[in-house]
Amino acid sequence: MAGFRITKHYTMPREEVRAAAEGFAADLEREYGVRSKWSGDRVRIKGSGVDGELSFDDGLIDISVKLGLLASMFEGKLKKEVQRYLDEYIS
Fold this sequence. Notes:
- The mean pLDDT is 93.
- It is globular, with a radius of gyration of 12 Å.
- The protein has helices at residues 14-32, 75-89, and strands spanning 2-9, 35-39, 42-47, 50-57, 60-67.
- The protein has a five-stranded antiparallel beta sheet with strand order 1-5-4-3-2, covered by helices on one side.
- The protein contains two helices and five strands, in the order E-H-E-E-E-E-H.
- It is an alpha+beta fold and 91 residues long.
- The protein has one domain: 2-Layer Sandwich (TATA-Binding Protein), CATH 3.30.310.
């Protein structure tokens, strides 16, 4: 199974990181129909061919994504889009 992992350090307040992560999950749900489920500072994301998790703690965001066969064809594009979102909204 294909996939990727991205980590990024942050210095912004935890509440702002949470708001950015919630916005990211909402964007994914709206644009791609994936479902998200929060548990503390961790969100699981599931959709057709996509299974991922985003967590943040102690100044580090960790995103891991597993992709099914069809979604794996877009691995590079998906990873680039996740990185772009982090760079734009997380500092």
